[in-house]
Amino acid sequence: MNLTGNRIFVTIVYTSGELLVETFRGEYRDLKCLIQDRLYSEEFGQCGGMGKCGTCLVEISGLTGEAASLKRNEATTLDRLASCRPEVRLACQVPVDSSLSNLFVKILSDH
């Protein structure tokens, strides 16, 4: 399998700075897993990707395709957290695909 054509570059912005991450489609199930693996402890995304806890809040502008639509419990959780801005998402519900390429992902709550 040739992965060079599937490379994805995304910049993660957090309290202490920025991290440019290179990954590829299929390396991570979702953005939460990528952030947890490359940057944060297990406390980021405490519900394990169910879209219920809200501990993986991120801000992303410019998402397209499948990644732009709300998944599973995400809409309910975002409503509960009083976040009606369309660029605020749960990282556990955002797939790692080419729509993330060259975007900035800002972590809204550092753990």
TrEMBL record:
GO terms for molecular function: iron-sulfur cluster binding. This is Ferredoxin, 2Fe-2S.
